[in-house]
Amino acid sequence: MTVADSSCVQNLYASHHHWLHELLRRRLNNAFDAADLAHDTFIRVLKRPQVFDGETHERSYLATIARGLCIDHWRRRQLEQAWLETLAAQPQAVQPSPEQRAIIVETLYEVDAMLQRLPERVRDAFILAQVHGLPYRAIAEEIGVSERMVKKYLAQALMHCAMLEAELDGLLIQ
């Protein structure tokens, strides 16, 4: 079956939504988050037409998408929790408004997603330079590469940052 056909998507949804929702509810321990992620799973199915060889393949495909969405969900929650803990340590006078908080959290999600797309050593070099302020030599020693490779890694990371900024500004044409 191809999910590009709307009746096939309806059948897929009718056949597996309850099963998927229960799977996600058990993983997330929250029915509301499970409902959101089940919905997001079917949205992804609509965006990526697929041919299935039967019910087992359908469920496997849905579970794979849902697993990735759960990982993203947990990562976002960890990031938000870290932000809230940092925010709680700040004096009340410097607390951002609710609108600013929402913008900051969304930007943190975007930066985290960008960092996750980077190769591990590039990500490590970038974090050591930008967050910890280490010089190239110390970064090179920390991740076991030459200073020249550190420069290359940081250039690669900065290119991704520029692309992220362009995306956030709506300048990147897809």
From TrEMBL:
Gene Ontology molecular function: any one: DNA binding
Residue ranges of the TM segments: none
Highest taxon in the source lineage: Bacteria
Pfam family, one: Sigma70_r2
Record-annotated RNA polymerase sigma factor 70 region 4 type domain positions: 110-161
InterPro entries assigned: RNA_pol_sigma-70-like, RNA_pol_sigma-70_dom, RNA_pol_sigma70_r2, RNA_pol_sigma70_r4_t2, RNA_pol_sigma_r2, RNA_pol_sigma_r3/r4-like, WH-like_DNA-bd_sf
GO biological process, one term: DNA-templated transcription initiation
Keywords for the protein's UniProt record, in alphabetical order: Sigma factor, Transcription, Transcription regulation
Domain RNA polymerase sigma-70 region: 12-78
UniProt similarity note: Belongs to the sigma-70 factor family. ECF subfamily.
Name under which the protein is recorded: RNA polymerase subunit sigma
